[in-house]
Known about the structure:
alpha/beta
Amino acid sequence: MTPDVSSPRVVFRIVVLLAAACVSACAGSVRPTLSPDQPKTDALLILPGLGYNRDAEHTFRSVAASVSSAGVDVYVADYLTRAGLYQSRDRLRRFIDKNNLAQYQRVHVFAFLAGAWTFNVVAGTARLPNLSTVVFDRSPLQERAPRIAADHLRVLAWLRYGTILFDLARLPYPPFTAEKVKVGILIETKPTSFIRDHAAAARAYGPLAFGCDTLSQRYEDCMYVGVNHNELYQRFPEVLPELLTFMRTGRFTAGANRHPPVDDVLARQRQ
């Protein structure tokens, strides 16, 4: 029997459970420990999305420690707010200003899905004249998740994420347009369990296009990774060499996979 999520008692229980989950899973910002005489060369600003949790924070802290000796300071912004995408953009602007990212010779950005919807608008107004490279995490599969949740799990989606999920569901991708910044795209090719469970809804929104040129984003280089959106947070160290190479050269490595999937990735997962 399906519970009536409109029942006040059920809603109260769901809110309590979600609040408890947030206490154990919600993650915070990551910032380097800077000394006054430390040379300011490169900063990597990571913009996580709705899948950011404590495990991902631990992964990013490990990444920060591994690249600090190479002169790269890692910042992970805790900027998303339930209030909505517009308020999240304001929080990101304040994070950039508060951490004085303009002090570095070069700033590099890695943006997960919600990060792109946030940063691409902020980039035109934030004081980042030193912005050098941006790598976008994109997923033709996972980018349908907010719309699926908004259309089919409306109450639960709002309780879990607030207004921002509905903003992501209804607002089109705002392309990053700065001409002097090198842009890379990293495309996930596997569905999360949420997308697999709602495969019919995902297909209903139209054909899945994995071509780099179908993502409404200019780019210098584009590559594919055989992970889903949740896995990318945990396996971020595996793509770090590609990210560092792009930061240095504006291209991914020669060994990067530049071939989109040729079969039905949703059908493949059922086999």
